[in-house]
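Posting this for the archive.
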Amino acid sequence: MTNRVTFSNPVAAKAADPWVYRHTDGFYYFMCTRGDRLELLRSRRLTDIASGERRTVWRPEPGGRYSHHLWAPEIHHLDGKWYIYYTANDGGGDDTRQVCVLENDGADPTEGEWRWRGALPTPSPGLDGSVLKLGESLYFLYAGYGHFPDYGSAIYIMKMDNPYTLSGGEQVLLTAPTLDWEKQGGMAINEGPVVLHRGGRVFLIYSASTTWSEDYCLGMLTMDEQADPMDAESWIKSPQPVFRKNPEQGVYATGHNSFTVSPDGSEDWIVFHALSAPGEDTGNRATRIQKFGWRADGTPDFGIPLGDGAALEPPSGE
């Protein structure tokens, strides 16, 4: 009898705000918050993303306006080029945070030059920039700071002329932290927007409550893909979290996720960070991966986060 190959979470220690993108070249590209630099890892296997080929693709000049607190980098392939969106500031507080953009027109993002395309001039200071591509149109999503009425962040959408230029129109508020489960840990937070397409619908998954709270979790907005994403009424907000802590198996503060697929494309996987105990130092946020499914009504079923060390079957095709 052949022993079944398994893996266990976490797949990357001290790796907060994980972003995984699987490209047509068959590689998984992995980024997470490093604070003082942007680091890109590349691997053929999703379970091996932490040990893949590694390159520091950006290190800002010390003391500059965008040289501090480099958070939540995301790599996207848009209009035939590579883009990285990340949060940075000048060392100050929330009111100095902006989302910055880098561009690389090479076929391989681990090679070539990453060029500074600037900080996006969003109406609100904010973080966690991402892009929604719908048909031929691009939309920018981010978490902007403000009072809703409690102080924190909310998810906004704006039109884009291209991957590094906002159209200049007004931003639209899609979801604010008004529910109790969105206001745990001392601040009211909606952040980390990421999109998932399936069955004629667009699902916007976001993180709620503070990342240092054990109750950090995922919420969801749903929109028909034929609707106007710039109309807040197009989006329906789920009244309860769609993914949250699992105290029975020692997984807390589950949030700031991304989505990818198995190597053969047959399975959907969620990538997220979590802590192993309530009140654990946020520096220990680690990246975990799990397969997820779909309900009969066409909505995603993320299940519950499974405990560290549990033997899990690897993605199909590994």
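The mean pLDDT is 96. The chain has one domain: 19-301.
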